[in-house]
């Protein structure tokens, strides 16, 4: 009997060392069922961001900064020139968003002048004459922004919200709302 027990014990130890014990255990142990994960539902919240003095001032200061940097360093590094003019155009474009449409249209011709300079820079067509023209144009547009579009002068032309529509669009919306209210009352 002792022999059988020791033989059985040796057999069990040999199987566990050989790795068979793990396989036998896996065969007889229940597997956990995969539980379907519940989908996550995200509710998006719409934030209303109103035009403020600080936001306008931020874009105004960035545009002035990029324009002055371009005027100072024009022609030294073509990649830097390209980056400066692109950033300046983006920031001046952002200024338009803050303004009522009538005042924003005043910036269009100045943006077009800056786009001409951008085209010169991108084409690498900055000979001495073009470089002087580009520098004078950038300095002129920077001066214009400093004198005509600083916050204290422009604050009466600021939009009340970014969702404002132009007057023609507002009249159409009001007419549709009035027609919808009449249908509701009549129906």
Tally the beta strands: 0
The portion of residues forming beta strands comes to under 5%
Radius of gyration: 36 Å
Largest sheet: none
The first-level CATH class of the domain at 53-157 is given as: Mainly Alpha
Q: What form results from the Cα inertia axes?
A: elongated
| Overall pLDDT confidence | 81
How much helix is in the residues? over 70%
- CATH fold field value of the domain at 53-157: Four Helix Bundle (Hemerythrin (Met), subunit A)
So how many helices?
Answer: 9
Helices and strands: which structural class? mainly alpha
Low-confidence stretches: 166-177, 181-187
CATH architecture of the domain at 53-157: Up-down Bundle
What's the end-to-end separation, in Å? 99 Å
Give the SSE string.
HHHHHHHHH
Task: Describe the secondary-structure layout.
Blueprint (H helix, E strand, L loop, with lengths): L1 H17 L1 H9 L24 H21 L4 H21 L2 H5 L2 H15 L5 H21 L2 H4 L12 H20 L1
Helix pairs in contact: 3-4, 3-7, 4-6, 6-7
């Amino acid at each position: 009997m002792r022999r059988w027990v020791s033989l059985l014990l040796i057999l069990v130890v040999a199987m566990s060392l050989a790795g068979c014990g793990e396989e036998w255990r896996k065969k007889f142990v229940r597997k956990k069922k995969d539980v379907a994960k519940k989908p996550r539902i995200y509710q998006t919240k719409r934030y209303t961001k109103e035009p403020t003095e600080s936001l306008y001032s931020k874009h105004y200061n960035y545009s002035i900064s990029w324009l002055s940097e371009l005027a100072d360093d024009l022609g030294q590094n073509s990649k830097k020139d390209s980056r400066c003019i692109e950033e300046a155009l983006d920031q001046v474009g952002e200024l338009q968003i803050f303004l009522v449409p009538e005042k924003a249209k005043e910036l269009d011709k100045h943006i077009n002048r800056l786009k001409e300079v951008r085209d010169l820079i991108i084409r690498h067509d900055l000979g001495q004459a073009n470089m002087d023209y580009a520098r004078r144009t950038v300095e002129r547009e920077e001066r214009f922004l400093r004198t005509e579009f600083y916050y204290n002068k422009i604050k009466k032309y600021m939009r009340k919200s970014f969702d404002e529509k132009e007057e023609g669009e507002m009249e159409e919306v009001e007419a549709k709302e009035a027609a919808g209210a009449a249908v509701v009352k009549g129906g």
